[in-house]
Design goal:
With 393 residues, the protein is an alpha+beta fold. The chain contains 13 helices and 19 strands. It folds into three domains: 194 residues, Cupin (Jelly Rolls, Sandwich); 69 residues, no CATH class; 101 residues, 2-Layer Sandwich (Enolase-like, domain 1). The chain has an eight-stranded antiparallel sheet.
Length: 393
């Protein structure tokens, strides 16, 4: 699917997060995984994050889905954007899989947009890196340098900027890709009816990591060291009982800094956060929960099993290579991981369904995998293909 001429190592060393770039024919003979009607159908469904952006002589409007109809939109100057299409339309996951040369925990989702001529969302700046694949049709992209730009909000949910001089100005055709690092202003305008596939990269802020640290500390009773006074802070408050002196602020800062020096704690917090999909995965709850000793009887059939769309996981890197066990975090929950666990998740990430008998043999030999699969089954995070088809009917 990915062009053999694309050098991912060269890209990561010389382009990633440094400068925008266009890659012609990065996806040779690219075929759109869904039609305009199928994308529009997704945007009719509740629970699917979708929006329509319209422009008319400099005036902008944004409408959130789900939508009931599209007849009043006209033939130009609008775009339909649908988030996390890979989680609602599994065949689209293949596009994300083409970026497996990047860390999976950095990938966010696949946003798909269908635009009519002159359609777009205006000039703006994203706080994350993005690859945008051109599908059917053509689109012109302009990208400017990082800098300070005037911000406008023509709609409360539409933040735009103005005044950038392009350092890159290109028309993309099917199979071409543009990479835009975080912080670079850009604008895309559709020249024809066109599809775009945006692969965004998750980049949590300091605030998000600190919030995750606080949540973890409360959940697991961590970070219980309390503030204590110092001679300096008490002396600074002599005759000033209602003043918070700088010496006390320094003491508080040191208390917080010491919390961040625990690498094991930070690894747990980051792993929990980054293995959790901010959009809950589509769960298929079983009619009845099972115990681990019942798992093999559930698997003893000829069906295929799939992971719930949107399920995320990552492995930890043992800090002590000799003694620390390896763990897998699945949707924020931690489990010990052996080779059978690796085999299962490697295969289920690449295939649209894995045979029961293969899973049966693997789980029979691994208590760790058996425990994980029992938990996933009870949480609706793994589903039998036959049950899925019955639910769709």
């Amino acid at each position: 699917m990915l062009s053999k001429s694309f050098d991912s190592d060269e890209f990561k060393s010389s382009i990633w997060q440094k400068k925008p770039a266009v890659f012609r024919g990065m996806f040779p003979n690219f075929v759109d995984p869904l039609s305009a009607d199928e994308l529009a159908g997704l945007a009719l469904e509740p629970g699917v994050d979708s929006r329509i952006v319209q422009s008319d002589h400099g005036k902008w409007n944004l409408i959130h889905g789900p939508f009931e109809a599209y007849d009043t939109l006209g033939d130009s100057h609008w775009s339909l954007l649908v988030q996390a299409v890979n989680e609602h339309f599994p065949p689209a996951q293949k596009i994300l899989n083409a970026f497996s040369w990047m860390p999976s925990w950095r990938l966010d989702d696949l946003m798909v947009s269908f635009s009519t001529p002159e359609g777009g969302v205006g000039a703006h700046i994203d706080q994350y890196d993005v690859f945008i694949i051109q599908g059917k049709g053509e689109r012109r992209w302009s990208v400017g340098p990082r800098g300070e730009y005037a911000v406008q909000t023509p709609h409360p949910d539409l933040k735009q900027i103005s005044g950038f001089e392009p350092i890159l100005d290109e028309v993309l055709k099917s199979g071409d890709v543009i990479y835009i690092p975080a912080g670079f202003p850009h604008k895309g305008v559709s020249l024809t009816d066109s599809f775009n596939y945006s692969i965004g990269f998750r980049a949590p802020s300091q605030g998000e990591f600190l919030s995750a640290l606080a949540d973890y500390a409360l959940e697991f009773d961590q970070l219980q060291q309390r503030y204590t006074d110092t001679k300096e802070s008490l002396a600074a408050q002599k005759n000033k009982p209602d003043v918070l002196p700088q010496q006390a602020v320094d003491q508080i800062q040191e208390l917080l800094r010491s919390a961040l020096e625990d690498k094991t704690l930070i690894q747990k917090v980051a792993s929990k956060l980054l293995s959790t999909n901010p959009r809950p995965p589509l769960q298929f709850w079983p009619e009845q929960s099972i115990q681990s000793d019942q798992l093999l009887s559930v698997l003893n059939n000829d069906s295929r099993w799939l992971a719930a769309p949107g399920l995320r996981w990552l492995y930890t890197d043992p800090q002590d290579q000799n003694n620390d066990p390896e763990y897998i975090y699945i949707q924020g929950s931690r489990f010990a991981a052996d080779l059978a666990v690796h085999s299962f998740f490697e295969r289920i990430s690449k295939e649209e369904g894995v045979e029961s008998q293969w899973i049966f043999a693997l789980a029979e030999s691994s208590e760790q995998l058996s425990s994980i699969l029992t938990w996933m089954y009870n949480e609706g995070l793994i589903v039998c293909e036959d049950d899925l088809e019955e639910e769709e009917d």
